Amino acid sequence: MEALGLLIIRIIVGFYYSAHGARKAFGWFGGNGPEKTGDFFEKIGIKPGKTMALFAGIGECIGGILFAFGLLTPLAALLIIVPMIVAIKTVTHKNGMFSDTGGIEYNVILIVIALGIVLTGPGSLSLDALFGFKFW
């Protein structure tokens, strides 16, 4: 059951996070794409905005997919944790704790989930397990 629980967490979080990145990088799922996201990045001091929006979005897409499949799990977690720390530092920290006020809630939850999975391992129902990758 443990492996199934980890699989469910990885798939749901991974694919939602991948979609989160696709909104930035490609404008999919009703996202702003690199132009508008880049404009926002420029306003908060992340330059060059469009380039950084593409890097962030593509990194989030890749990180989410790797996380969902349990492949290269430490890298996947890093591709989730680092952008969420940047989001807290640049945007959400000033809005308090909860997401309904634009606060850090979403970012913290993703950081904790990614950290928890990387510390426990992705489980036996993962590509890391299938390929015999041991990182911890």
TrEMBL record:
GO terms for cellular component: plasma membrane. It is a multi-pass membrane protein. The keyword Transmembrane helix applies. It is found in: Cell membrane. Keywords: Cell membrane, Membrane, Transmembrane, Transmembrane helix. The chain crosses the membrane at residues 53-86, 106-131. It holds the Pfam family DoxX. Its main location: membrane. InterPro entries: DoxX (IPR032808), DoxX-like_oxidoreductase (IPR051907). It comes from the Bacteria. Belongs to the DoxX family. This is Putative oxidoreductase.
